[in-house]
Amino acid sequence: MLVPILKQGDYLIASVQSELSDEDLLKLRDELVKRVGELRSRGVIIDVTALYVMDSFATRTLRAIAHMIRLRGAETIIVGIQPEVAFTMVQLGLKLEGVMTALDLEEGLAYLQTLHTSKRR
Amino acid sequence: MNKEETKKPTPESSDALLRELVDHFREKREILRQQWVQLMMGKGLLAGLTQEEIETESITIYDTCIVCLETGEYEGAQAYATRMAERGVLRGMTTEQIIGGLLTLRDVYGRSLFERYQHDMERLSAALDIYEPVANKILSVVALAFVEEREKVVRQQQEAIRELSTPVLQFRDKLLILPIIGLIDSLRARQLTEQLLRAIRANRARVVVMDITGVPSVDSKVANHLVQTVDASRLMGATVVVTGVSPEIAQTLVTLGVDLSKMNTVGDLQGGIEVADQLLGYKVSRTEPPATGLITSKEKVP
Amino acid sequence: MADEVRVSINSEYDIVTARLKGRDLAAKLGFSSTELVVIATAISEIARNIVQYAKHGEISMSIIQQGSRSGIIITARDKGPGIPNINLAMQDGYSTGGGLGLGLPGAKRLMDEFEVTSKVGSGTTVTMKKWLR
Fold this sequence. Notes:
The complex is a heterotrimer.
Chain A: E1 5-8, E2 11-15, H1 22-38, E3 43-47, H2 56-71, E4 75-79, H3 83-92, E5 100-102, H4 105-120
Parallel strand pairs in A: 2-3, 3-4, 4-5
Antiparallel strand pairs in A: 1-2
Helix pairs in contact in A: 1-2
Chain B: H1 2-7, H2 11-27, H3 29-42, H4 51-71, H5 75-91, H6 95-117, H7 121-165, E1 169-172, E2 175-181, H8 186-203, E3 207-214, H9 220-235, E4 239-243, H10 247-256, E5 264-266, H11 269-280, H12 291-300
Parallel strand pairs in B: 2-3, 3-4, 4-5
Antiparallel strand pairs in B: 1-2
Chain C: E1 5-9, H1 12-29, H2 33-54, E2 57-66, E3 69-78, H3 86-89, H4 103-110, E4 113-119, E5 123-131
Antiparallel strand pairs in C: 1-2, 2-3, 3-5, 4-5
Helix pairs in contact in C: 1-2, 2-4
């Protein structure tokens, strides 16, 4: 199951549509890290609303994606982690340290915008 | 015991004696039941019951006990006790009333057996051998039913208190307040976290002020739960500001070595709301200068 | 056991199948939405453990009844290399497979009961249970 990646202005939006296998996650990582440079994007939003399991592998991969994208000069925001999933992640000991999060796509976009306007000033 | 063993009644004769006992209690039903009710009244065990209730209940209990003796089965007594417990606990009947009542009935039955067999000690002893285990069993069935009912009510009340004690309040757009009052255990901490996370989604909250002024103490387990609540909220994009950490709790947390580096803490609820407003980009200011001075000066003019 | 579900684990794709089936079974029993995610995530962790260390194995899941309570029991079996030191493997952050080292200890935290038995050279069995509240 491939994750569609949309370009919207300065940002890239990857919205996960269904459960992902480990390989899908790694493909998403490679694709995002590649495109963020090609398209000169300043921010990436990964929407995980459709995921009901965020296990240690998924969390580790998402964190790696965020760190790699930062090295490529852009910010990553993970949006749409559901209450049940957030609850399970902290019980498991997963916190996504150093990665920005927002409630949903709308909030994520607003977050990126304030981030960039404040930087420009 | 040993003396009786040789003279122990054969199954046939014990069956016959059982029949005799059942018939005896049925025959004397009205006299014994009245005696029982009188005794209970004397002890003040019937407070709060109407005359009608006393009549119907005492008949039912009396007959149910005889059925237990006759059949050796206690389902009927159990069902009745559960029903009685449900009503009794709700109406505030005390355990003392219930158990006291049954002990009195036990005495009434026992005394009538003494009267009947007082000239035949052997037969009395055989009758008591049959009667006593049944009476004990009935008492334990009823006591258990009441204990279970009490426990059920306590559980329901605990559940209700839990729900009531952690309201998640929307204070402003995107700002929730979670005042926690009372002791927190693991179960409550878990429920509280689930409730807060759902409220964050429902209210699209960005900041949560968690006020623990009303929490008397925490242990390491609970402290970790609170840290988890903060972490989980952050995963959903909400920042948690913790307020009202008492000197005792502050000391506990530091002694336990709970990682507070990422916790956002402010002294009291008011300060927490101010910080939350800053985080949300609100500026709170008075729209007019204090009005009292103006009014008094105006009043003074004419 | 009428409701036993078995999923053989041979590749990382089977991890997704196992946790989906586990969630469906748990849903039948009436677990809350949070508990369904908790159970599915724990299954994901132990299934990945099989893929990572043993390559092949099987996960079986069924409903259990013990006295007045009921729950779900999940067993992961493999004939892989086994775990030389279970205490070490159950420690947070310990990993020989390049992971976060949260797999087994993490799954243990998510479930009510958790047990690992392993013999070097002949395989590992993980049994975990979650009771309905």
